[in-house]
């Protein structure tokens, strides 16, 4: 069968079979694509049906075994209730409904008018344009009149829905934020970029590959449902390209202590002398510590060792039902306090500097307040990476936290003793659904392309579970009631007051952080009773922290006293190019510059139990 090079216009009246176009010049169609081999296409559609069967089986298998995960029904119910409250506000005022409908109708009439003008050869400005940071519509074929119309119609509709939430009267702030969040999820899911029929790039790929891309994609889809235990776990990176301890998390060291919830790693020195005061890193337990040791080039841990620090890092257990009762106090005593005892035994040093990252920083803040209450002075300075201790402006994650949602999570955790790691990972991904969910869904399942190896995204998908008692305490005392900043939190029978924490603090925020917003971190800086060096890094929650001096990617800002409004502080702050790491080390070194001969892990009283990165970090969720 003879093939012709046909563009999408050939499927309408825009081109005769000779290849001559009867369309105006500015309405040229998408890039030329060969007509498919229809026999091969038909065969691939048959294979596609087979893959659908495998997907169904992967979904049903956990249900048949009685192992199906719960929670999605509660989430869907909350979404319906929240958007129902928005609808109620509009129903109560019919005149506003008419006004809103008229606004939407007017926008679509303008879109239709501009489409007709464009078809007649006029150059017209679009009615709706994507945000410059929105990469979904970058393919040139979105300029084709048909797909441009689809794109603009989608943008008009999704923005109208957002406006309906913003203009709904008498909504409490939490309900409004939840409604905005759910509208963002729905709009992201319904984007025309997510469907073959409405995405010119996908159409082109499918025609060129005779549907082979869809077959490959559905095969990966079935594999990902199987990997998720009956729920879709979208792969973001080529997991087979990385192995913890082999080509990721490779800074040399030894595990020198282990209990039920931590392994403590002491890293091998790379300088003949080191600072006398050791450094303890308290990472978050909602994901794994090696975000600070991804590879030699961007490893914060390796860099610290190279500066002459004796670095200890906690590696949290990936908990299961045995750890259900481990709460915040357990993590303080069996985590931070156990690490402090071990450091003293290994080095003879009673005083340390400490770093806390994200929720690890929140735990460190709680611990410092408790230590102040009992006059324990073993931690002489503290650094916080993108940490919240004041949750009054906690950002987008707060949409997941109210009494009803926490109760539902607690009921789920009561059945297993923990929160499944996929739930927390999914929540983080939902904060940026177009970037972290739908872009991978399109690439993997519709284009049929396996994701490329990327250490950061491999780490992102290497999720961990959360013990029931710990997670419930965190949600209720921090996000829901904000007790730590108010002086209302109690640990070990002691009332905690951050104003009693008078040691030097280095508090790092990230300017574009959507997990620990810069405003929230700034508020937290005002909670402490001693000197605070407040620093703002460029980029977000991860890239703002993992910003090695080896590559100048982002800048950072330093300023004066932490007082007044964050916007005013930032406006007066000094901007510096490059990484904040050297600035932090200068601050740390100035406090205790004395040096001693380098300490080898496992060379003293405590013998090595395993090579870094240990065993706990390798346990999958």
UniProtKB/TrEMBL annotation:
Database matches in InterPro entries: AB_hydrolase_1, AB_hydrolase_fold, PHA/PHB_synthase, PHA_synth_I, PhaC_N
Feature: compositional bias, Basic and acidic residues: 12-26
Domain Poly-beta-hydroxybutyrate polymerase N-terminal: 133-304
Segments of this protein annotated with the region Disordered: 1-37
Compartments it resides in: Cytoplasm
Domain AB hydrolase-1: 308-543
Coiled coil: none
Entry keyword Transferase: yes
Pfam families for this protein: Abhydrolase_1, PhaC_N
Acyltransferase in keyword set: yes
Primary subcellular site in the record, as a coarse category: cytoplasm
Keyword set, alphabetical order: Acyltransferase, Cytoplasm, Transferase
Domain of life of the native organism: Bacteria
Entry protein name: Polyhydroxyalkanoate synthase
Species in which this protein is naturally found: Bosea robiniae
């Amino acid at each position: 069968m003879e093939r012709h090079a046909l563009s999408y216009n050939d499927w309408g009246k825009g081109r005769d079979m000779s290849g001559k176009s009867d369309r105006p010049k500015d309405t040229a169609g998408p890039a030329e694509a060969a007509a498919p081999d229809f026999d091969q296409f038909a065969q691939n559609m048959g294979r596609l049906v087979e893959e659908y069967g495998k997907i169904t089986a992967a979904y049903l298998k956990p249900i048949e075994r009685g192992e199906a995960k719960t929670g999605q029904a509660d989430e869907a119910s909350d979404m319906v209730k929240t958007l129902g409250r928005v609808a109620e506000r509009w129903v109560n005022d019919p005149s506003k409904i008419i006004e809103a409908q008229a606004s939407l109708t007017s926008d679509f009439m303008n879109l239709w008018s501009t489409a007709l003008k464009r078809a007649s050869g006029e150059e017209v400005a679009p009615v709706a344009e994507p945000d410059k940071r929105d990469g979904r519509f970058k393919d040139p074929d979105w300029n084709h009149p048909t797909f441009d119309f689809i794109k603009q119609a989608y943008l008009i509709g999704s923005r109208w829905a957002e406006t309906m939430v913003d203009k709904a009267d008498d909504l409490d702030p939490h309900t409004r934020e939840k409604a905005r969040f759910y509208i963002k999820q729905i709009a992201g899911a319904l984007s025309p970029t997510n469907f073959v029929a409405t995405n010119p790039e996908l159409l082109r790929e499918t025609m060129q590959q005779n549907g082979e891309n869809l077959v490959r994609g559905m095969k990966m889809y079935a594999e990902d449902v199987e990997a998720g235990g009956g729920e879709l776990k979208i792969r973001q990176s080529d997991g087979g390209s990385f192995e913890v301890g082999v080509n990721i998390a490779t800074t040399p060291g030894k595990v020198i202590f282990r209990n039920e919830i931590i392994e403590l790693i002491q890293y091998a020195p790379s300088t003949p002398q080191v600072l006398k005061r050791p450094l303890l890193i308290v990472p978050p337990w909602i994901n794994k510590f090696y975000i600070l040791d991804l590879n030699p080039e961007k490893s914060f841990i390796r860099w610290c060792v190279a500066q002459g620090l004796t670095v200890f890092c906690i590696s949290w257990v990936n908990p299961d039902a045995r750890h259900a009762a481990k709460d915040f106090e357990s993590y303080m005593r069996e985590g931070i306090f156990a690490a402090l005892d071990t450091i003293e035994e290994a080095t003879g040093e009673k005083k340390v500097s400490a770093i806390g990252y994200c929720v690890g920083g929140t735990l460190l803040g709680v611990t410092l307040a408790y230590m102040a209450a009992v006059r324990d002075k073993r931690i002489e300075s503290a650094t916080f990476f993108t940490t919240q201790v004041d949750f009054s402006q906690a950002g987008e994650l707060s949409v997941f936290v109210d009494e009803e949602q926490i109760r539902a999570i607690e009921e789920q955790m009561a059945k297993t003793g923990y929160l499944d790691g996929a739930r927390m990972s999914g929540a983080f991904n939902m904060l940026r659904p177009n970037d972290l969910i739908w872009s991978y869904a399109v690439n993997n399942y519709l284009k049929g392309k396996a994701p490329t190896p990327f250490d950061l995204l491999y780490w992102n998908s290497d999720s961990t579970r959360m013990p029931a008692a710990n997670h419930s305490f965190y949600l209720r005392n921090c996000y829901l009631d904000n007790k730590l900043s108010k002086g209302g939190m109690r640990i070990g029978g002691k009332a905690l007051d951050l104003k009693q924490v008078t040691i030097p603090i280095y508090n790092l925020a990230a300017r574009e952080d959507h997990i620990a917003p810069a405003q929230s971190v700034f508020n937290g800086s005002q909670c402490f009773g001693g000197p605070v060096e407040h620093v703002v890094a460029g980029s977000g929650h991860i890239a703002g922290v993992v910003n090695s001096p080896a590559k100048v990617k982002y800048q950072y800002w330093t300023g004066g006293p932490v007082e007044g409004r964050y916007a005013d502080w930032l406006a007066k702050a000094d901007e510096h190019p490059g990484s904040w790491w050297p600035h932090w080390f200068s601050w740390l070194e100035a406090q205790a510059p004395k040096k001693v001969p380098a300490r080898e892990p496992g060379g003293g009283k405590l013998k090595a139990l395993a090579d870094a990165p240990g065993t706990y970090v390798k346990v999958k969720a």
